[in-house]
Amino acid sequence: MDKVVTSAADAVADIPDGATLAVGGFGLCGIPSVLIDAVLQAGTTDLQAVSNNCGVDDWGLGRLLVEKRLRRMISSYVGENKEFARQYLSGELEVELTPQGTLAERMRAGGSGIPGFYTATGVGTQVAEGGLPWKYDDSGNVIVSSPPKETRVFSTAEGEKEYVLEEAIVADFGLVRAWKGDRHGNLVYRDSARNFNPLAAMCGRVTIAEVEELVEPGELDPNDVHTPGVYVQRVVALTPEQAADKRIERVTTRPRPTAAAPAEDAATHGLGG
């Protein structure tokens, strides 16, 4: 089945107001920026986004955030996005902060048909006991808090240990970015872009992938495929300009070291006669 859609706008056209989106990426690495912009241009609003973070103020999910298109985030951290922090603390945005590994497993479980799982992460904290602030009012008062979660003691090799029940996440739509993809929806991610993208692809009922390079069926080595096409319903081929438009969340550099003289270098490294 050829799953290629002519444009990002067409690919996201049926995403309704109020939908839940699972969005791949970590920081700004591997984010489906073209699909996010298409959702922005479509005017879709009242969205809940499930993603490791919310981009930055002017890129990625941050573009939806600044236009007040997001009503709720399920994520691991605020990161460099000052608008995310401002909207959360001022009561404009509901935020369910979730331990990063737990978030990843909740998404994987949703894509695997597993309704929930037990984990030791968060036991003895507000993650399990409830009371984490999900939403404030404009005066800084907590008006929505996380509920307490079920816990259970299991016997392990180290003895009895308490675990907390976490529920799976299933999103209405998954938005991901891949390095290569074929017309059947098989996807390959490159290096660290293989972060939350496979999980977002799994847990979306309808998954849309933007691919930097579109290839024909059979051109991808099956051993290299990270997301099988069964998880993907639509593929958008990016232009070279769109594929090259990537940003760095925080640029850190250091001065280039000056070359040492040969004799000095040999002495420094204990190579002198």
From TrEMBL:
Transmembrane segments: none annotated. SUPFAM superfamilies: NagB/RpiA/CoA transferase-like. One of its GO terms (molecular function) is CoA-transferase activity. Residues 254-265 have a biased composition (Low complexity). SMART domains: CoA_trans (SM00882). It comes from the Bacteria. Keywords: Transferase. Residues 250-273 are annotated as: Disordered. Pfam families: CoA_trans. Belongs to the 3-oxoacid CoA-transferase subunit A family. This is 3-oxoacid CoA-transferase subunit A. The lineage of its organism: Bacteria, Bacillati, Actinomycetota, Actinomycetes, Propionibacteriales.
